[in-house]
Amino acid sequence: MSLIRCPDCGNKISTSATACPKCGRPVTPKQATKKKGSSLGGCLAIVVITIGAVVYFGTRGSDPNKTPEIKKNSSGTDVANRIPYSVLENLKGTHGSTWVVLLDQKYLNEKDLRALGETLRYDRRNEELAVVMVFDDKKAAAMQKNWMKLNDQDGEFFDKHLIATYTRNMVLSNKQHNFVVNLDGKGFEVKY
What we know:
single chain, alpha+beta, two-stranded antiparallel sheet, 8 strands, globular
């Protein structure tokens, strides 16, 4: 068993550990060996771990044809600047679910992606634990089922087309609610 360093506190941890025993940060061996400065990749790794938690703690169901309906806000009007997306996979759990969604490439700009974050925030507002992985390529979206087994070339393709991740985690003590975007190597994060 070899040891790696936690990306947050630098503590030595086993390569088989899922979290740092000192600071509690979820880690994967691939994540822990990355150079400092790839915080966006670290955020995506945390999201993937959260997805695993949803599947582990809940029952798995699939409804790939489910497309969210346009909702009304508290004043009864449509949500402003709603960005449409297609739900490719819905993994249901006890506290919430993980969606894999496909976004039309015409929305790949900062303004529309920020509006998509608000759309997802509204659509998932009643779930304690919600993760949405946003892809701009259907083939890359299908790869998420085996993301840990991807070779380097497929991994790069997967990373290139995983445009954003929305996470709402109100179950754990360290609550997390954000939308992380990585577009052409540039990105931003919106915390709610």
